[in-house]
Amino acid sequence: MYRRTPFYEKVKERMMRYAGVDTQSDPNSAQTPTTGKQFDLARMLFDELLEIGASDVWLDETACVVYGKIPSAMPDGGGRPFGLVTHMDTAPDAPGANVKPWVLENYDGGDIVLNAEKGIVLSPKDFPTLLNYVGQDLILTDGTTLLGGDDKAGIAAVMTMAEHLLAHPEIPHGPVSLAFTPDEEVGGLAKDLDFERFGAKVAYTLDGDHLGFYMDETFNASLAKLTVKGRSVHPATAKGVMVNAADAVGEFLSMLPRFERPQYTAWREGFFHVISVSADVEHAEVTLIVRDHDRTQFEHREAYLRKCADALKAEYGAERVSLTILQQYRNMKEFLDPCPYLTENLIAAIRMAGIEPRTEPFRGGTDGSALSERGLPSPNLSAGYENAHGRFEYVPIPSMEKNVEILLHLCALFGNMKDE
Ligand SMILES: [Zn+2]
């Protein structure tokens, strides 16, 4: 039988309130942040940090990043500083405005009518993980929008933990830095997080589904683009004159290994993934992404693409073929290996909260992948939402309560470590 903790009302109220603020980011915007409305939540969080008594509270009015700190409560003012980073935006994949969150108490394991009028039902037949939450209270949508538990469930847990520590200076812990960032869902990679202002040299992101999951391993990632310039003439007189760019691109595609594609790979297997092709005689281009957990394999993949381009250059002329490879993010593991205590403390904190930690090599990247590469090693702790990016998203309230506990244990563990 599940029992409410003292954090129940706090995380629920916060999650409901944050969900009501439209913070959808926009992949087609070149602005920073990609949507101005993310400032609505940023200002709310800024005010809230001041209210609960955080120090060094700051809103970057350009980059839309909110900062705050919880000072050390160790008798000697020590402890090893660490930080928490959560994102404020919601995904562009489903409607994000006019979110109307509601609470279903004591879920009975049956179908949940999200919207009677429109006949929208959340069923364990479609989403069997629902059955993990029988007997719990769930925050749900009205079936027409996403919920934004990704990542507001994370923010609610962080803010509730911060409020608790600031209200109870007798609880020992070290200094904790907080940051709320924009545009995670559109590849922002927390690029404007100011490390100096943030203060901590290591951090965790709080994001992702399933309570108790953590992530310290992600893909290495790059984006490649091959373009071919052709020469179009009438087919009747084309012999020895026409250069068909579409043919060249077809050859390129045929060189990509058949079974090294997302639909044939799992776990730590890397891939090439063609995301778009456009081709006619005059001009053709292919955009693809390259992914691999293993750094050496990843570099081999990029080298293989260059070889393919070289083969086309030899056939069609070097001036007609170009390949660009853009680095996206790195596997965080490479940057976490020198500080194993980051993952160790996380695992310990999850266990101390009575949850069995689970992990698997993540087949994607996180803001933490980019932060780690830039010098702020940052594994990820799940925020505990489910069915993100869609109308069937929900957040079990106990998952947020547990995350508050996990974070409090983390703070205690870091408090007992010496500052480097
Ligand atoms: Zn997220």
Structure, explained:
This protein has 420 residues and is an alpha+beta fold. It has 2 domains: 8-217 and 332-415, Aminopeptidase (3-Layer(aba) Sandwich), CATH 3.40.630.10; 220-329, Alpha-Beta Plaits (2-Layer Sandwich), CATH 3.30.70. The chain has 10 helices and 16 strands. A hairpin with a 4-residue loop joins strand 5 (112-115) and strand 6 (120-122). The radius of gyration is 24 Å and the shape is globular. It binds zinc ion. Residues 87, 150-151, 184, 207 line the site of zinc ion.
Quick summary of this structure?
It is built from ten helices and 16 strands. By secondary structure, it is of the alpha+beta class. The radius of gyration is 24 Å and the shape is globular.
**CATH architecture verdict of the largest domain:** 3-Layer(aba) Sandwich
Number of helices: 10
Taking all Cα atoms into account, the compactness measure Rg is 24 Å
Helix content: 25-40%
Helix/strand/pairing category: alpha+beta
Order of helices and strands: HHEEEEEEEHEHEEEHEEHEHHHEEH
CATH superfamily of the largest domain: Zn peptidases
Mean pLDDT: 96
Query: Low-confidence segments, ≥5 residues, pLDDT <50?
Result: none
> How many structural domains?
2
Top CATH class of the largest domain: Alpha Beta
Question: What percent strand?
Answer: 15-25%
Distance between the termini: 43 Å
Strand arrangement across the biggest beta sheet? 1-2-8-3-9-15-10
**Which word captures the global form?**
globular
Reported by name, the CATH topology of the largest domain is: Aminopeptidase
Instruction: Give the biggest sheet.
Output: 7 strands, mixed
What small-molecule ligands were found?
zinc ion
Q: What is the tally of beta strands?
A: 16
